[in-house]
Amino acid sequence: MARQRIEDEDERDEDYEEAPKKKRGRRAGSFEFDGTAGDFLPVFLVAFLLYMFTFGLAFPWVLCMLKKWESEHTLISGRRLRFDGTGSAALGLLLVSYILIVITFGIYSFWAVPKIQKWVVENTEFDDE
Q1: Which helix (H) or strand (E) segment is 125 a member of?
Q2: 0.70 cut: is pTM over it?
Q3: What angle do CA 20, 23, 29 make, to 5 degrees?
Q4: For tag attachment on the chain, is the N or C end more exposed, with fewer CB atoms within 10 Å?
Q5: pLDDT tens digits for 46-101?
Q6: Phi then psi for 127, rounded to 5 degrees?
Q7: Inside any domain, residue 58
Q8: Is 57 within a domain?
Q9: Is 112 domain-assigned?
Q10: How far apart are CA 108 and CA 112, in angstroms?
């Protein structure tokens, strides 16, 4: 019985593809992030001040600033990302989400968070495209 289990596991291992070959000490298809505190500090200060002076009303634009910085410093397989979302587009999405969250006493937040993340991903692409 134990021998049969070992043979079954060996057969299952053959079904999997090999791990990608390494390039320059990393796996092919790897992710990189080259942002530094020096790069982030000015973006953070502007975002923080904008958020505070508008009492949070500028949050969609702050979100876009931060996502833009994040994507500009992220590479996938050596290709840099770019975020093209705008604060005005985010405003509509967030406003509807906030209203529905309030109306449903927070229940809609389980749908709002994935919807917002989907919007972020759909507005992120490779910089060379």
Answers
A1: strand 124-126
A2: yes
A3: 50
A4: N
A5: 999 999 999 999 999 999 999 999 999 999 999 999 999 999 999 999 999 999 99
A6: -65, -25
A7: yes
A8: yes
A9: yes
A10: 6
Q: Which domain holds residue 61?
A: 26-123
In the DSSP assignment, the letter for residue 18 is P
Q: What is the pLDDT of residues 9-57, one digit of tens each?
A: 555 555 545 555 555 555 656 999 999 999 999 999 999 999 999 999 9
Question: Do 77 and 30 form a contact (C-beta atoms < 8 A)?
Answer: yes
DSSP run (H or E) holding 53: helix 37-53
Output Rg (C-alpha) for the chain, integer angstroms: 22
Residue 47 lies in a domain: yes
Residue pair 43/65 in contact (Cβ under 8 Å)? The answer is yes
